[in-house]
Amino acid sequence: MSENEHSRVDRSTLVARLKSEPLWDLAVIGGGATGLGVAVDAALRGLKVVLLEADDFAKGSSSRATKLLHGGVRYLAQGQLSLVREALHERAVILANAPSLARPLSFVMPAYRWWEPFTLGLGLGAYESLAGRHSLGPTRRLSRKQMLATLPQVRAEGLKGGVRYWDAQFDDAQLAVTLARSASRLGALTLNHFRVEGFLQEGGRVTGVHGTDSESGAQCEVQARCVVNAAGVWVDDLRQLAAGPAGTPPRLQVSQGSHVVVDREFWPSDEALLIPRTRDGRVLFAVPWQGKVILGTTEQAREDRPTEPRPMAEEIDFILSEVGHYLTRAPARADIRSAWAGLRPLVQPAERAKGTARISREHAVWTEPSGLVCVAGGKWTTYRAMARDVLAHCIAEDRIPPGRDWRVERSTEHLPLERDDTLLRGGIPGADRMIAEGLSEQRVRFAVRHEFARKVEDVLARRSRLLFLDAHAAREAAPAVADLLHAEGILQPGLEDFMSTSEGYLP
To answer: Strands (DSSP E) along 303-423, which ranges?
Structure first.
């Protein structure tokens, strides 16, 4: 069997397998960073795993990050050394296992008070020391002259110097798709566009799920020894569904972060700019990414959990205003190519959840009275550690077997996620026919055949990042992408839905 044949996605086969399997070891709800990490880890252990995602992989928060892999400088200031050390280790693992999706990136912090180059240098030097052998580069104090020589775009008035340190950046949505493909290659069933609508229960305990295939409308019941709720900001919705009429108190506080994207002319440097303290006390970034610059992020509490959050006008104004204090030429609203928002699930302390285990200050794993295992919080950098904690929790509760020869032979820490896409694309036509800058017909066909893409939005938002980089260009390319999806046998490519959704990305 050729590599193309081996990795080609046949959705009808996936749905048929879902219906035919009498009992899974583990059913994971949610195809974001955490759920996909759990699926990869469990499949590597030899467990029978199914992952069900209501929309597309990384549709929610996991495609809307600032694209940074980091240890968390602000956690260092709070004294959370073990958390920072773990994240720095995980940063190194992702860089090693997915080298085409992640790379080291230097950051510069300008200083406008005489003491800041020294205090920032001390703190970031400690950050580098915690990385140990995983350090990506030296931390250096920069004089005013050095700052202006290397970064002439930084405002000179009042500048005292700065500090350069190292972290990393990545393509969040593409890493999610790579994890879905890796889990599939290891034997897991990963199925997007399948909505879980309820739970199977016996004696008040969850024994599986039931849901609907969004494409065919086919309904299916899935029996599993253990069900993991990794639905991100929608974790509470599934908790309520499992609890029934009795209900259960919420565990999450949702926070919205927004970003805007502008052309590189506003920040042509290959280094990222970090503004250490904005008016609301957060840090703000200007990050070069895929030929554009990402500006953000904000933090705004929300009570609702929309599938398509949109940046609030005041958030966009805030980002442009804060960046304007540090750049010689500040972008205006008319310069924005795309604007997008993501929701972050922040875990609140809980006393009523049975078996709650506070794994870290960032994420938590616990079991509901219904037997539903839940995981929430965390960040992309530590997705693998979160997955490990989820499985350790399930094994400790005797919900799943530990897996064959796990401790001796296997670990996701040494599992390469890289796939040779060039070889896979070799037999697919359209490499020389461009739909938009950086997007060929071949790339679209590859996304359908090998990356689980089923909708126009899947292609333009997550297999290609065009919607996040230039919303107008994505809307212009959408009809041609829809035609290609039709040609690949997808009857409902969702063109109208995409045109409606993409309006929220327009400046």
So the answer is: 338-347, 363-367, 373-377
